[in-house]
């Protein structure tokens, strides 16, 4: 595990590519109550391994986050996974007893205080970078995708507030033109139908430009999600801001 901060985002929208596709996956720190959610995380990892795609994710070892990282490392080795986690979250999201739907953060010790849990091996969850805060994490994750080969992008599996916040933030970065990779929800059993309906309603009622519907794709399977990212073209309707200049 290493500690690190983010270097500035490249000022151009077309940074140097490093040859390997990278997908940043946003997903729940909880496993969900339906087995298909964890299975979707495993399936996505299998498709990424089959296509030699690297994973960038939030660095947790719990819930869907831990499942996709563990599965991809088991198939493609630790170098295929890079987790980026804010230091304050280490004690929660690398704790096997934690779920965001409400359990303890760390095991209570005999004297009532909490105990530090060991950081799992890189051999199980891949490389982990600890950063000071959430903003640094998000920026680093986006930078890594931007530096990836064509077809790199962002996929959201089911999740809660954290997943939704990260997903919608990256959509707004596309809308502003400060990042240009594709974004797709993996709509496991219609999990994201409500979000897609809201986007359509926002277009119908004049809050989102019609062309910007294309910023967020929806896929029924991991294979389709990976294909949609590869086919993504920035819609003309987005703004053309340059990262770091505004
Ligand atoms: P959740 O979907 O709520 O289980 O969260 C999934 C991930 O989103 C976790 O790693 C959270 O740390 C992360 N996350 C990103 N932004 C936020 C935020 N503003 N508040 C809470 N969690 C966040």
From TrEMBL:
Q: Pfam families, per this entry? A: Lysine_decarbox
Specify the protein name: Lysine decarboxylase-like protein
Species of the source: Coniella lustricola
**May I have one GO cellular component term?**
cytosol
Looking up InterPro entries in the UniProt record yields: LOG (IPR005269), LOG_fam (IPR031100)
**Entry's Gene Ontology molecular function annotations:** hydrolase activity, hydrolyzing N-glycosyl compounds
Q: Which domain of life is it from?
A: Eukaryota
| GO BP term, pick one | cytokinin biosynthetic process
